[in-house]
Structures are given as C-alpha cells and as structure tokens.
Specification:
heterodimer; B: 754 residues; four-stranded mixed β-sheet
Chain lengths: 165, 754
C-alpha cells in the first residue's frame, strides 16, 4: 500500500475530511473546504490562499473566525497526523482557535510512521523549533461521554496537494 | 488485636461501600473501556513488546544518568532563553513559581499531576493569584473541591448528571447544560474567556529532552496548546524523572503512551515545544490589531521576544527514590494509568480509595511511599493484591506488585516495632518476621503451617473452624470475614494418598518422562482431588510421577508483605527440588499462584542460575499436558469432553497470575482438544485474590470485583472451571455452584489407571 493510501485510510478512521487537489486547484479546494468566516496563514512554495480567506488575521479574528487555514509541514501516514509548526506567522493559533481547521499538505511531505516523523523533527527541535503533531480533532471524554471539539477544533479537513501530473 | 483495629476495619469497609456506591459505576465503565482500548491497540502493533523493552531500557539509562542529564538540560534551557529551576520540595517549587508568576491576576493551567502533588493552586491563591484549571476533568474537580481519582481521567468517578448539577449549582444557571456536548461547549466558552484574559500559562510535561530543552506534552483537548501559546509567560512543572537524553528517545514513549492510556494510536495533540516559542502572543485587548508583526512572513522559529519561559523540575523525594533499589523503578512511570485500568480492585473503587495524596492505582504505592511517606502509602497499600494484571499493561515493564509488596513489608515492620505484641519473643512464629507483625497478616502469611495442623486434626479442625464462636473470634482477632466459607482440610493429604497407593502406576523404565507433581499447600491439604487428577492425567500420558513432601512456595507470606519469610521459603523449595531438576525431572504445578512464584518472584530471591534452572523445569499442569500432547502423547488416553456423563460446555475463568504468564492458552487448547466447548471470561481478576476476599474490611469489595463474572457466567449452566484455588472459592461464593480445576475434566478415573 502506498504511503498516500495509508494516510487517506488513517484520516478516514479519524473522521478527518480530505480533498485531493493539484497546486493549480489548491486555492479553490481550500475555498470549498472552509465554512463561515475564514482566516489563514500564508502558504509556501507557490500555493495560494483563496481571496475568501483573510491572510492577515487580527487578534480578534482568532475568537470570531469559524475556519483556520494553515500549512502542515508534514503528515504521518500510519496514523493520519499532521505536523503544525509554532511559527511567527501564527500557525499554532490559527489552527487551534477556530472550530474548523483546514491543513494544507503536499503529498511529498508524507512520512510513513511516528519513528520517521521523530527523526525528521530532531534537527528542528534541536534548533529551537516547536510544533504539534495533531491527530484528528480535539476531543474530551471528561463530560460523561466522548465529545469531539473541546478546546481545539472539532472539525479537521486536510487538503492533500499532489504534484502536477 | 485491639478494639481500635476492629473499629478501623468496620470504618474502612463502610468507606469502601460508600465510594463504590457513589463512584463505582462511573469508574468501572471508564476504566474497563480504557483497558479494552489498550488491549486492542497493543494487538495492532506487532513490535509492541520491543517498544516496551526499549522504553524500559531508555528509562533505566535516563534515571541512571539523571545528574548529568539535569546539567545538560540546564544548558539547553538557558541557551534557548528560558529558565530552569530544580526544586527540592513542594515549598521550594511553590516559592519559585509564585515569584515567576509575579503580579499576574490569573494562571491558566493544563492538566498536571505534579502540580497537584505540590498543591501549587493553594500557594498561588495564598499569593493572591487565581489558578484556573482548563482540562475539563480537572476543572470539574476544582469546582467540586475534590481530589483527582485517576492519573489521566481526574474526574473519571463523576457521572454526566453530577457534572451538570455541579455547573448549574456553581454558576447558578436557569437553563443548565445537560448533554455531554452541551457541557463541553459550556466549559469551552467559560474557560476560553479565562485563557484569553490570563497572563501566565502553566503546563506539565510528559517528557523533557535534555539535549534540546524540548517538552513533550500529550493531550486530547487542546488546552495545553492554548494555555502555552496564548499567554506570554509559560511555566512548565514536571518531576525531575521526566528527562530523556535525546529527541529520538521520545519515539518509543510516544508510540506507547496513548495506546497504554486510552488505546489511541496518538492522542489528538502531541506538542513538542522548545520554549520560548515563535508563535506571536495574541493581545485580545486589541482585537483589531494584526496577530502577526508587520514583518511576519511565517518563516523562522526565533522566539517571540514577548515570551518568557520557566521550567520547574521537582525533586520532592525522587532523588532519594533513585537511591532506593526497590522504589527506583517507580521513576520509570510515564503516568499512563494502565495499571489502574487493568486492576480489578481499582475498577470497583477508583482512586479515591485506591490512591494517596496525589497518585492513584497500582503505581501510586511507589509514588506515595517515596513522596509522602509510608503513612500515606499504608492507607491504600492493601488494595494491591498482587494479581499482576498490571504487569503486562505497564508500557515500561514496571513490576508494580513487587513495589507494593516491598512497601507492605516496610509498613508491617514499622507497625510491628510499635505494636503491643512486640513482647512476644521472636522465633515463636513459623516465619522470619518481627514479633509484633499484624496478626491478620501473620494468620494468612503462615497458612502453610495452619493447613498442616488443620489436616492433622481435620475432623475437629473443620468442625471447630466453622463453629459460630470460632468464626466470631476469627473475625475479631484476625479479621477473617464470617460471611466466607473457610477451606475444609482433608484428612488424607495428597502425599499420603500417593504413598498409600504405592507411588506411580507408570514404572520408570516404561515412562516417557519423569515428573514431580508439586504438593502445594492447597492441593496437598485442602483440594486433594485436583492433585489426584493431575497424577492420573500425567500417568495416562506415560509419565512416571512422584509426589514427595515439599516445602511451601512462599506465596501467602509474600502476599502479606512478609518478604523475608517468602525468601526463606524460596531457598527451602529450591534446595528440596534442585536434585530432582538435576536428575532431569519436570516440576508440575497445579496451583497457578505457586507456579507464578517459581517463574517470577523467585528471580528476586535465588541466584540467577538457580532461578533459571528451577523456572525452566517448572510447568503449570495444563501447560505440561499440552506439551505432552504436542510431543505425541495420545489425547485418547484422557477423558473426552463428549463423554455423555459430562457437561460438554464449560465457563472458564483464567487465574490472574497465570494470565500474566500467558498460560491460559494451554488450558483452553487442551480442553478444546478434549472436545469441550469453552467460554473464557475476560475479567482481569475474580476479586478473591488469595486471601484478600476473606478479610472483613474487603469482603464486599471482593464480591463487587467478581460481579462481572456473575454477569458473564451467572446465566449459563456451563460447568465452572478455574485453576486457581481462590478463583474457585470465589466462583462458588458468587454463583453458588462449585468450580472444577481443568485437570479434573480430562483426568481418567483412578480405576482406569495403569
């Protein structure tokens, strides 16, 4: 099974929605995946946010926005996780505060498993980097039964950008 | 045994009864769900055992090198621009934290058992700072002014309706939230506001990496992320034992932690933070301003200059535990809660009975003894029965029952020194314990001696034992509950029966193998029939059998924390068996708790070579039968399950310690080969646990622990099967019909013996 297939299966087990797209269609795919008022962190490598996503969010937007769009540095196929960096552009906060998180990830940035992910993170962390391996939506079982969407997003949507054919 | 002790027993029984009534259902549901999740997750990972071994080795190494790692971490944190403080104790930690928090009005906290341990909330409140718990479970506990009942589910003991009532009450709500989703939304909103207003965020840390100063924080709710990223000052508090050398060392722990705790592959959020972090600090008082600085381009991980970071590592007894050969293992704990979830007693009572000042479940014995002292550990140490179901559950292979046994020994000896009975001369009792040892413990611990006397005077002893006045005295003096049937001693022991019969029916020169059937205390003096069945079964499969008189294994004294006595028994039994083993004879054991002694605990008592030899030559009886069948012995020689005089359908409860040794599979395979239809229980422990269920203060708890067996087997007319003596006694008490040892279901009748 390819890494990508494994990743898609893992996402489905986590109830994470996914859109497979190309660099050219990426902005449209993001626009389709957002709900309500959307804020975002600028993407790298020629990928663009759609105009409907505010790419210079204000402090107040964190509280009021319905969707946060951020890049994900890499994904872990075996488990369906995405890695979100604590960067100066606010990826940590934009992916955390709104109730819906849209993570944009290139298929080239999939790693097979946790061990590979840790190996990849080693140099970043040693250089002072920070981030979170996010696996599905936030959840709690503290209120008597499992509830999705606690302090973090209750909905997660992954935009998987495949290299142009 | 004073009136005060009797009063203590009644009081303790009443307290357990109350907690079971108020908290038992919620605890049982949650722990069993997590426990099932853990098992399923472990089965999905082929290299699970390798991960456990690696995690264990890493922890051993890290604790061994802790002083060096602390110094390395000190440099890493300073290089990142943070502050590291090593606090000697709670007061020292709190003094530093209060200073670091400065003039903040509120501190928002994510879940941290270590901050519970040092009671930082009280220290903050005393300094005029309001601590706000943001983990929903911790918040519930804070509002209810209670202590957490579980390492990872602090409010696990509360039902949804109770939480709804609590919110309605505290916040005076006209239309209070009711469903779990409504309660969560309510909490999110309330706590979200507190987080946005706060200046200081406090988190724990699951792991701290020495080489980089990175914290690993594992959560599901997202509050740790929010607390750390939203405030400009991050104070992380953790035990000094949480340090690992390198980033790469995190891998086995992260793979194991969530799987062990809840059965998740990874929790929703594994934050790997090397603070101070680069994320901009949001200013919610200026909502129209941009979150990101004018030149923020999303690149680089340089710390945001507004951020301040303090890492407070707590000693508070840990470095002394590191020097303590018996408690050191406790420091390998990753606080996943698997020992609590897999524990029969915990599933019934939760952490408010099975726990100390802060920590709960099996591993709490070590934590509380090391941090708070023996007084606190003594409050709940009895709750560990040594059933060992936590041993395969622990991701770092901590021998939790052993720690609790050692702590029990220390408690015994301290109590004995202060006892009124200390005037009795040492050496009067048949054990190696101090004179003032608790009589209830001594009564159970010296059961082998009692059984021998009971057997010699069986008719009288049995009549007397069950006479009203004697039962009343037993309850009063040694705490044996009068609601329990006592074992009846046999007039003819297994050894005597075997001699009278003229030894083995299979001559040595015609035998395929030569084996000792070990006459353990119960098989020899109480349940002789299962011993006879073992002899006949082995002979039917071509084994020359011997049943020599042999010393007891030491299981009862060990269960009472009488470690010195248990060790003496180990040496005696090894001495008595060594020559048999050297002669190539197998040692076949009928009682699983005795086999578990030989295969597990003896490793701590015997020389390594001696342990290996004895353990390598010893077999549980059904395991041995399985081996004989695999080697070509004819199954037809055994009584088939489709014999019309027998019930083909069985309900089998595997003994807890046998299950830990993976022995139940052999029993199942042999019974199925013999034509039986077997239903196996997945209850971790029957609740009797040797002598535990006989004790007046624990009788009701032990019955409650057995309740799942009633649910499982109560409605069937299957024949009950159990290898363990105490499981058999418990099944009989719960279901009012006798349980058979599996070997009795395959043994040919005596008349058929060759």
């Amino acid at each position: 099974m390819s890494t990508e297939t494994t990743f898609l299966e893992s996402l489905s087990e986590l109830d994470v929605e996914v859109t497979r797209t190309t660099p050219d269609s990426c902005a449209d795919a993001i626009a389709d995946a957002t709900v309500g008022e959307a804020i975002g962190v600028p993407l790298q490598d020629g990928l663009a946010l759609p105009p409907s996503v505010a790419d210079r969010p204000t402090n107040g937007d964190l509280e009021t926005a319905d969707t946060g769009v951020t890049p994900a540095a890499f994904g872990i196929a075996e488990i369906g996780s995405v890695h979100l960096e604590s960067d100066r552009a606010g990826t940590e906060l934009v992916s955390l505060y709104p109730r819906r998180h849209v993570a944009v990830l290139r298929d080239a940035d999939l790693v097979p498993d946790v061990a590979t992910a840790i190996d990849r993170l080693g140099p970043d962390l040693r250089a002072g980097g920070s981030g979170v391996v996010a696996t599905g939506p936030s959840a709690t079982a503290d209120m008597g039964s499992l509830v999705v969407g606690a302090h973090g997003p209750g909905e997660v949507h992954v935009i998987l950008v495949e290299a142009g054919q | 045994m004073s009136r005060a002790d009797r009063g203590d027993r009644a009081e303790r029984a009443a307290r357990i009864r109350n907690v079971m009534r108020e908290e038992g259902d919620a605890v049982a549901r949650n722990t069993r769900e997590h426990n099932a999740g853990r098992k399923a997750a472990a089965e999905n990972v082929p290299e699970y055992e390798d991960l456990r071994t690696r995690a264990r080795e890493l922890k051993e190494h890290a604790i061994e090198n802790l002083p060096e790692l602390i110094e390395e971490l000190r440099e890493s944190v300073a290089a990142n621009g943070g502050h590291l403080y090593i606090a000697d104790d709670a007061a020292d930690a709190n003094r530093y934290i209060v200073e670091a928090v400065g003039d903040a009005d509120t501190v928002v906290k994510s879940k941290s058992m270590t901050t519970e341990e040092i009671e930082v909330n009280d220290a903050l409140a005393a300094a005029g700072v309001e601590p706000v718990e943001t983990d929903l479970g911790e918040w519930v506990i804070q509002l209810a002014d209670e202590a957490p009942s579980h390492l990872i589910g602090p409010a696990m003991h509360k039902e949804r309706a109770e939480i709804a009532e609590l919110f309605a009450d505290v916040f005076d709500l006209a239309e209070p939230p009711e469903t779990a989703a409504e309660l969560t939304a309510f909490a999110r909103e309330k706590l979200g506001k507190r987080i946005r207003e706060a200046d200081v965020g406090m988190t724990g840390a699951n792991f701290v990496v020495a080489e980089s100063g990175t914290l690993a924080i594992v959560t599901n709710e997202g509050n740790a992320r929010k607390v750390a990223a939203t405030t400009d000052t991050h104070v992380a508090v953790a035990g000094v034992e949480k340090i690992v050398p390198t980033v790469e060392d995190l891998q086995p722990f992260l793979e194991l932690l969530s799987r062990s705790g809840t059965g998740q592959e990874l929790s929703a959020y594994t934050s790997l933070l090397t603070p101070p972090v680069a994320s901009p600090v949001p200013d919610f008082d200026a909502p129209a301003e941009s979150l990101v600085d004018g030149n923020g381009d999303g690149s680089g991980v340089a710390a945001d200059s507004d951020r301040e970071f303090h890492l407070v590592l707590i000693d508070n007894g840990r470095l002394a535990m590191r020097e303590d050969d018996e408690l050191r293992e406790t420091l390998y704990c990753v606080r996943c809660g698997a020992c609590a979830n897999s524990c029969g007693n915990f599933q019934s009572v939760g952490g408010h009975v099975f726990g100390g000042e802060t920590y709960t479940g099996g591993i709490a014995g070590g934590w509380e003894a090391g941090i708070e002292g023996l007084d606190v550990a003594a409050e709940f140490n009895d709750l560990c029965t040594g059933c060992s179901r936590c041993v395969p559950a622990c991701p770092v292979q901590i021998d939790i029952p052993w720690i609790n046994t050692v702590v029990r020994d220390r408690i015994n000896r301290r109590k004995a020194d202060a006892s009124d009975f200390a005037f009795l001369p040492d050496g009067l009792a048949p054990d190696a314990e101090p004179a003032g040892l608790d009589l209830g413990k001594r009564f159970v611990g010296d059961f082998a001696t009692l059984a021998e006397w009971g057997h010699r005077t069986a008719p009288l002893a049995n009549r007397l034992a069950n006479a009203g006045p004697v039962r009343a005295a037993l309850e009063r003096v040694v705490g044996i509950d009068r609601r329990r049937d006592l074992p009846e001693f046999a007039s003819e022991s297994l050894v005597e029966w075997f001699d009278r019969r003229g030894g083995s029916r299979v001559p040595i020169d015609e035998a395929d193998r030569d084996a000792i059937v070990y006459p353990d205390t119960y098989t020899n003096y109480v349940d002789v029939e299962r011993g006879k069945a073992a002899v006949r079964t082995l002979e039917a499969l071509g084994v020359h059998v011997r049943v020599p008189p042999l010393p007891p294994s030491g299981r009862p004294p060990l269960s009472q924390g009488m470690v010195a006595t248990a060790e003496e028994r180990a040496h005696d039994l090894y001495a008595a068996l060594a020559e048999h083993v050297d002669a190539g004879r197998d040692v076949v054991v009928v009682e699983p708790s005795d086999l578990a002694m030989i295969r597990s605990e003896y490793e701590r008592f015997l020389e390594p070579d001696s342990f290996e030899r004895l353990a390598g030559a010893s077999y549980e009886v059904l395991e041995y039968v399985y081996g004989l069948l695999e080697n070509g012995a004819p199954i037809d020689a055994l009584t088939p399950g489709d014999d019309s005089t027998r019930n083909r359908e069985l309900a089998y409860h595997p003994h807890c310690q046998a299950r830990t040794l993976d022995l139940e599979e052999y029993t199942l395979a042999v019974l199925e080969r013999a034509g039986y239809d077997v239903r196996t229980s997945d209850t971790e422990c029957c609740g009797m646990a040797g002598s535990f269920g006989y004790k007046a203060e624990y009788y009701e708890l032990s019955i409650d622990v057995g309740e799942p067996l009633v649910e499982d087997f109560g409605g069937t007319d299957r024949t009950l099967v159990a290898s363990g003596t105490s499981c058999g006694e418990q099944l009989d008490a719960l279901l009012d019909r006798p349980a058979r040892h599996p070997v009795e279901l395959i043994a040919p009748p005596e008349s058929a013996s060759r």
